[in-house]
Write a structure and sequence with these properties.
heterodimer; A: mainly alpha; MetI-like fold; 12 helices; flat; B: about 260 residues; alpha/beta; Rossmann fold; 6-stranded mixed β-sheet; 10 strands; disordered N terminus
Amino acid sequence: MTELPNPQPKPGWREWLLTDAPASRGQARAAAWYAGWLALRGNTLAMFGLLVLLFLILCALFAPLLASQDPFVQDLGARLLPPGSEGYIFGTDSLGRDIYSRLLYGARISLYIVALVALVAPLLGLIIGTIAGYAGGWVDVVLMRFTDIFLAFPRLILALAFVAALGAGIENAVLAISLTAWPPYARIARAETLTIRNSDYIHAIRLQGAGPVRIITRHVWPLCISSLVIRVTLDMAGIILTAAGLGFLGLGAQPPSPEWGAMVSEGRKYILDHWWVATIPGLAIFAISLAFNLLGDGLRDVLDPKESKS
Amino acid sequence: MANEMNADRTGAIDIHDLHVWFGVGAARNMAVKGVNLTVDAGQSYGLVGESGSGKSTVLRAIAGLVESWDGTIAVGGETLKQRGRSKAFYKTVQMVFQDPYASLHPRHTVDRVLGETLQLHGFSDIDARIARLLDSVGLGGGFRFRYPHQLSGGQRQRVAIARALAPEPRILLLDEPTSALDVSVQAEILNLLSDLRSEMGLTYLMVSHDLGVVGHMCEQIAVMQQGEIVEELGVAEMRRLQANHPYTQHLLDSSLGAIR
C-alpha cells in the first residue's frame, strides 16, 4: 500500500487505473490498489507517518554512507561531548562513540526487529484465531483458553522469561516478543471470523463444495488481514518499546551493538549531567513509534471494510 | 405422497414430515413443524408465507446450511443425511440468496467468484465458461473483472444467479431472490429466471412473501404459517381466488388490495 503498483507507462494510466470496467485481472487488482493509495494520500497525518518511516528506512539502508564515524570506535579522550561539538552532531556517549552514527546503525536493528515480529506474530494469531472461529466447538474452546493463558501474563515479564530461557540476543528477543504478541491478533481474527462465517458468501462457497481449508485461507483471511494490518501498525510502537525495554534491561541486543533501548540504558547513568546520551536515542524511539501510530490510523481509514461499505 | 423412489425423479425434491429447530434445551424453538412437500422435476414451486413462517428454513435444511432437522428430505430420489452433502449434491442443487449485497465476497471480482466455482466443480475450460455464464444472465464481458461494489443490486443478483448456474444444476433453490431489489429490477430478474428455466429445464423451489411474484413464477404454491403448510394450491386456483384456508384467503385479499 506504500507504492504505486506498476502503472502502464502510456499517458492515460490514471484513467486506466480509475476505470469502472477493468478489462483484465491485473487491471482490476491495480485499480483496487490505486483507489486505496488515493484514500491514504488524502490523509495528511498518515502521509506524514509514512514519510517519517521512509526516511528511517533510507537512513537504515544508507547508514554506512551517512555515518560520520564508525559506530563502534571508542575515543575516551572525546567522551560525553555535548551535541554540536566538532565532528559529533549529536555528541558522544560515555565511551566517546558518535551518537549520530550509532543512531543510524541502530535504525537497522530496530527495523529488523519490527519486520520480524510483524511477520511472525500476526501470522500465528491469524492462523489460530481463524481456525478457532471457523471450527467452533471444542477446537474453539481449547485454542481460546490457550490464548487466554498467554494473555494473562504481563507481556514484558513473559518476554523476559523467554529470553532468560533462550539466551540474550536480538533473534531471541524477536522470538520472545512474537510469542507474547500473538494472542491479541488471535482474538481479533476470531472475532472477525465469527461475523464472516455465517454470511451468505461463505454459505454460497460451501454450496460449491469448498472445504474448510479453502474457505479459511481464500475467503476468511482476505477479510481479516486488513484489521490485522491496522492492529500491527498500531502495535509497532509497543513492539519497539518492548524491544527497547529488553535492551534497556540488558536482555535484548548486547553491547556494543547500537540498539536504541540499550543506548538509553547506557545513558541512564549520566542522565542528570549529560542529558543527550539517553535523550537522543529516546527521541528516535519516540519518532518511529509516532510514525507507526499515525500510519496505522490512516490505514484504518483506508482498509476498514466497515467504513468503505458500498 | 413423499418417498416414492421412481426412476424419473432426478430433478425432484421430496420432503416428508420435516421438523427443523434452533437452539437446545429450554431455548429450543421449532421453526418448521411437519412439512410435507413434493416438487416434480421441471416444476416451479412456490413457498409463500409471512416472515418467520419457516419458509427459508426449509430451503436451508435442503441445502445443508441448517443441520438440526428431522424427517426425510430426498433430492433426485436420494435421501439426504443430516449433515454433510456429497459433491454430486452440489452439482444438482444450487441456491440463490436473498440479499445480493451479502452473497458476494466483497474482495473477489466477478471473474474470481465464477472461476473458483467452476474450478471447484472440476471444469477445465474455465475462461470460455465464465464468458458463457455472463452472457446467459445478460451481463456482458465488461462486468467480468469488476468488484461487487462496482455493480448495482440487480447486476449483483445476476452474478449470484450465474454462480448458481455454473455447476449446471438441475434444481435451483431461490430464497426471495428479488425482495432486496427495487421494483423495475425485480421484474428483470424474474423474467431472467423464467427464461433460464425454460431454456435449461430447471426445477425451481422458490420462497417469497409476495404472492404476485410467486403467481408470476410458479405453477404450484404452498402457503406456510408458523412452521406448517396450511394449504397447497395450483396457480389457476389462486388466480380464481379459490382458497379454502382463511389465512390463504387473507393473503390473497391483501395482495389484491395492494394492486387496487
